[in-house]
Amino acid sequence: MEITSRNKLRKIRAGRSRGKTIRFSKRPRLVVYKSARYIELQLIDDNKQHTLIGVNTKSKEARVLSPQERINWLAQKISDYMTKNKLNALRFDRSGYPYSGNIKKIVESIREKGITI
């Protein structure tokens, strides 16, 4: 019997959900990647296959913040970009992570800024 890692199972779950969302939508996709230390968000336009913006908690600005403030800082950066470019809706790709904890906080923070998910 083959031993499967947690990350491998997460990638399988991510592939199932991502395949469905990429094909049918004209809205940009917000992708989350989470490691033990950092959180990264990318806003991707799947029609043009282009990354619009990428932000993460590795920057010097985010390192001095508390964990909850980091999440709000990421959401603020994404929402500022979207309002500047007149985008008001996006699709959320949780990349196979469970919808709880920091992932849920990210979505709630972005919704508070007036963006439709």
Task: Label this structure with key terms.
single chain; alpha+beta; Nucleotidyltransferase, domain 5; 4-stranded mixed sheet; globular
Describe the structure.
By secondary structure, the chain is an alpha+beta fold. Helix content is 44%, strand content 20%. It has helices at residues 6-24, 60-63, 67-84, 102-112, and strands spanning 29-34, 39-45, 50-56, 91-93. It has a 4-stranded mixed beta sheet with strand order 3-2-1-4, sandwiched between helices. The longest helix has 19 residues, at 6-24. It is globular and about 45 Å long. It starts with 5 loop residues before the first helix and ends in a 5-residue tail after the last helix.
| CATH architecture level-2 label | 2-Layer Sandwich
What is the number of helical segments per DSSP (H or I, 4+ residues)? 4
Q: Main sheet, how many strands, which sense, barrel?
A: 4 strands, mixed
Helix content: 40-55%
Radius of gyration computed on alpha carbons: 15 Å
The CA-CA distance between the termini, in Å, is: 40 Å
How many separate domains?
Answer: 1
Unreliable stretches, pLDDT < 50, 5 or more residues?
Answer: none
Question: In CATH terms, what is the fold-level topology?
Answer: Nucleotidyltransferase, domain 5
